[in-house]
Design a protein that fits this description.
This protein is mainly α and about 80 residues long. About 75% of the residues lie in helices and about 0% in strands. It has four helices and no strands. The longest helix is centred in the last third of the chain and has 18 residues.
Length: about 80
């Protein structure tokens, strides 16, 4: 799959990812950082791009939660 196609797919889930992160973190700066981290990790998951929409949403949700929770454990 081409890089441009992957970017288009990831952008479809960008808002959903940020919403989850913001709900957990309640801070715009940290939410943005967590969403970026989650999306970058998903970008390296080759299976993500061939998954169904339902499976992608589940992966985005799990990765967003993990990235958000890591905001509380990482030093600023």
């Amino acid at each position: 799959m081409y890089k441009q196609q992957k970017i288009i797919i990831l952008r479809q889930y960008e808002t959903y990812c940020y919403q989850i992160c913001h709900y957990i973190v309640q801070n715009e700066q940290f939410s943005s950082r967590a969403a970026e981290t989650a999306l970058l990790k998903l970008a390296t998951d080759a299976q993500f791009f061939t998954d169904s929409d339902e499976m992608r949403k589940e992966k985005v949700k799990r990765m967003s939660i993990c990235a958000s929770l890591s905001c509380f454990t990482e030093p600023n």
